[in-house]
Amino acid sequence: MCGEVRASAREQDSVPWARETTTPLRQHGESRQMGRPSALTKELRDAVAREFRRVIDQRYPSAAKAADDLGISRQRLQKYLDRKATPHSDLLLLAIKKWGIRLQCFEVEFSQGAFREKTAQEAPGPRQLNLFDEPLTLRNERVELRLARKAEDTLRITLAVKLAS
Protein backbone atom coordinates (compact mmCIF):
# COMPACT_ATOMS: atom_id res chain seq x y z
CA MET A 1 0.00 0.00 0.00
CA CYS A 2 1.10 3.54 -0.61
CA GLY A 3 0.06 6.73 1.04
CA GLU A 4 0.55 8.02 4.50
CA VAL A 5 -0.03 6.57 7.92
CA ARG A 6 -1.37 8.78 10.66
CA ALA A 7 -1.82 7.67 14.24
CA SER A 8 -5.08 8.60 15.94
CA ALA A 9 -4.99 10.79 19.03
CA ARG A 10 -5.64 7.78 21.28
CA GLU A 11 -2.84 5.78 19.62
CA GLN A 12 -0.50 8.74 20.03
CA ASP A 13 -1.12 8.80 23.76
CA SER A 14 -0.60 5.06 24.25
CA VAL A 15 2.30 4.48 21.85
CA PRO A 16 5.32 6.80 22.22
CA TRP A 17 6.63 6.34 18.68
CA ALA A 18 3.21 7.25 17.23
CA ARG A 19 3.66 10.89 18.25
CA GLU A 20 5.59 11.55 15.07
CA THR A 21 3.68 13.46 12.46
CA THR A 22 3.05 11.92 9.07
CA THR A 23 5.09 8.98 7.77
CA PRO A 24 5.09 8.38 4.01
CA LEU A 25 5.01 4.71 3.04
CA ARG A 26 6.31 3.44 -0.25
CA GLN A 27 6.56 -0.21 -1.17
CA HIS A 28 7.93 -1.89 -4.25
CA GLY A 29 9.16 1.38 -5.72
CA GLU A 30 5.74 2.95 -6.15
CA SER A 31 5.47 6.69 -6.25
CA ARG A 32 3.44 8.67 -3.73
CA GLN A 33 0.36 8.54 -5.97
CA MET A 34 -1.31 5.21 -5.38
CA GLY A 35 -0.73 2.62 -8.03
CA ARG A 36 1.75 4.60 -10.13
CA PRO A 37 5.02 2.69 -10.36
CA SER A 38 8.27 4.64 -10.20
CA ALA A 39 10.79 4.72 -13.02
CA LEU A 40 12.88 2.10 -11.20
CA THR A 41 9.90 -0.23 -10.88
CA LYS A 42 9.00 0.22 -14.55
CA GLU A 43 12.58 -0.51 -15.60
CA LEU A 44 12.73 -3.62 -13.42
CA ARG A 45 9.35 -4.88 -14.65
CA ASP A 46 10.45 -4.36 -18.27
CA ALA A 47 13.67 -6.31 -17.69
CA VAL A 48 11.83 -9.13 -15.91
CA ALA A 49 9.16 -9.39 -18.61
CA ARG A 50 11.75 -9.34 -21.38
CA GLU A 51 13.93 -12.08 -19.82
CA PHE A 52 11.02 -14.24 -18.66
CA ARG A 53 9.45 -14.07 -22.14
CA ARG A 54 12.77 -15.00 -23.79
CA VAL A 55 13.21 -18.05 -21.54
CA ILE A 56 9.61 -19.18 -21.96
CA ASP A 57 9.79 -18.91 -25.76
CA GLN A 58 13.08 -20.86 -25.88
CA ARG A 59 12.52 -23.59 -23.28
CA TYR A 60 8.86 -24.17 -22.54
CA PRO A 61 5.84 -25.23 -24.59
CA SER A 62 3.65 -22.86 -22.53
CA ALA A 63 3.81 -20.20 -19.83
CA ALA A 64 1.98 -22.60 -17.50
CA LYS A 65 4.93 -25.03 -17.62
CA ALA A 66 7.35 -22.20 -16.86
CA ALA A 67 5.16 -21.10 -13.95
CA ASP A 68 5.17 -24.66 -12.59
CA ASP A 69 8.95 -24.72 -12.86
CA LEU A 70 9.17 -21.57 -10.72
CA GLY A 71 6.50 -22.78 -8.30
CA ILE A 72 4.05 -19.96 -9.02
CA SER A 73 0.63 -19.82 -10.64
CA ARG A 74 0.16 -19.18 -14.34
CA GLN A 75 -1.80 -16.02 -13.48
CA ARG A 76 1.04 -14.66 -11.35
CA LEU A 77 3.57 -15.28 -14.14
CA GLN A 78 1.23 -13.55 -16.60
CA LYS A 79 1.19 -10.44 -14.36
CA TYR A 80 5.00 -10.35 -14.55
CA LEU A 81 4.91 -10.77 -18.33
CA ASP A 82 2.30 -7.99 -18.63
CA ARG A 83 4.42 -5.72 -16.38
CA LYS A 84 1.57 -5.37 -13.88
CA ALA A 85 3.48 -6.81 -10.89
CA THR A 86 7.05 -6.99 -9.66
CA PRO A 87 8.37 -10.39 -8.53
CA HIS A 88 9.61 -10.72 -4.97
CA SER A 89 13.39 -10.93 -4.56
CA ASP A 90 13.25 -14.64 -3.67
CA LEU A 91 11.48 -15.42 -6.94
CA LEU A 92 13.92 -13.30 -8.92
CA LEU A 93 16.84 -15.13 -7.35
CA LEU A 94 15.22 -18.48 -8.12
CA ALA A 95 14.66 -17.50 -11.77
CA ILE A 96 18.21 -16.20 -12.08
CA LYS A 97 19.65 -19.43 -10.67
CA LYS A 98 17.27 -21.84 -12.40
CA TRP A 99 17.11 -20.19 -15.80
CA GLY A 100 20.48 -18.43 -15.88
CA ILE A 101 18.90 -15.10 -16.80
CA ARG A 102 20.52 -11.69 -16.46
CA LEU A 103 18.51 -8.65 -15.48
CA GLN A 104 19.80 -5.23 -16.53
CA CYS A 105 18.19 -2.38 -14.61
CA PHE A 106 19.57 1.19 -14.58
CA GLU A 107 23.04 0.01 -15.60
CA VAL A 108 23.13 -2.59 -12.83
CA GLU A 109 23.23 -6.22 -13.88
CA PHE A 110 21.83 -9.01 -11.75
CA SER A 111 23.02 -12.46 -12.68
CA GLN A 112 23.83 -15.70 -10.91
CA GLY A 113 27.33 -14.51 -10.00
CA ALA A 114 25.93 -11.44 -8.23
CA PHE A 115 24.62 -13.53 -5.34
CA ARG A 116 26.84 -15.39 -2.94
CA GLU A 117 25.88 -18.79 -1.64
CA LYS A 118 24.97 -19.19 2.02
CA THR A 119 27.52 -21.09 4.00
CA ALA A 120 26.98 -23.30 7.02
CA GLN A 121 28.14 -20.45 9.27
CA GLU A 122 25.51 -18.06 7.92
CA ALA A 123 22.64 -20.51 8.35
CA PRO A 124 22.94 -22.08 11.82
CA GLY A 125 20.60 -24.88 12.77
CA PRO A 126 17.91 -24.58 15.42
CA ARG A 127 19.04 -24.58 19.02
CA GLN A 128 17.25 -26.04 22.00
CA LEU A 129 17.17 -23.75 25.02
CA ASN A 130 17.95 -25.22 28.42
CA LEU A 131 14.68 -24.44 30.09
CA PHE A 132 14.12 -25.06 33.78
CA ASP A 133 17.79 -25.62 34.62
CA GLU A 134 17.07 -23.26 37.48
CA PRO A 135 13.74 -23.62 39.33
CA LEU A 136 11.10 -21.07 38.39
CA THR A 137 8.69 -19.85 41.06
CA LEU A 138 5.61 -17.74 40.47
CA ARG A 139 3.54 -16.54 43.40
CA ASN A 140 0.93 -14.13 44.60
CA GLU A 141 -0.88 -13.84 47.97
CA ARG A 142 -2.69 -17.20 47.73
CA VAL A 143 -1.00 -19.29 45.03
CA GLU A 144 2.56 -20.48 44.48
CA LEU A 145 3.62 -22.35 41.35
CA ARG A 146 7.07 -23.92 41.15
CA LEU A 147 8.58 -25.46 38.01
CA ALA A 148 11.81 -27.43 38.25
CA ARG A 149 13.60 -30.08 36.26
CA LYS A 150 13.37 -33.47 37.98
CA ALA A 151 15.37 -35.41 35.37
CA GLU A 152 16.57 -34.79 31.80
CA ASP A 153 13.15 -35.56 30.37
CA THR A 154 10.93 -34.87 33.39
CA LEU A 155 9.57 -31.62 34.79
CA ARG A 156 8.29 -31.29 38.37
CA ILE A 157 5.36 -28.94 38.88
CA THR A 158 4.35 -27.96 42.40
CA LEU A 159 1.21 -25.96 43.10
CA ALA A 160 0.41 -24.60 46.53
CA VAL A 161 -2.91 -22.84 47.17
CA LYS A 162 -3.79 -21.15 50.49
CA LEU A 163 -7.39 -21.89 51.30
CA ALA A 164 -9.64 -19.25 52.81
CA SER A 165 -9.83 -19.61 56.56
| The CATH H-level homologous superfamily of the largest domain | lambda repressor-like DNA-binding domains
Main-sheet strand order equals 5-6-7
Q: Over all CA atoms, what is the radius of gyration?
A: 27 Å
**What low-confidence regions span 5 or more consecutive residues with pLDDT below 50?**
1-32
| CATH class annotation of the largest domain | Mainly Alpha
| Whole-number mean pLDDT | 76
Shape: elongated
Domains, number: 2
CATH architecture of the largest domain: Orthogonal Bundle
Structural class: alpha+beta
Briefly note the CATH topology name of the largest domain: 434 Repressor (Amino-terminal Domain)
Could you state the order of secondary-structure elements as H and E?
EHEHHHHEEEEE
For the largest beta-sheet, the strand count, sense and barrel status come to: 3 strands, antiparallel
Q: What percentage of amino acids are in beta strands?
A: 15-25%
For the record, give the distance between the C-alpha atoms at the N and C termini, rounded to a whole number: 61 Å
Number of E-type strands: 7
How many H/I helical runs?
5
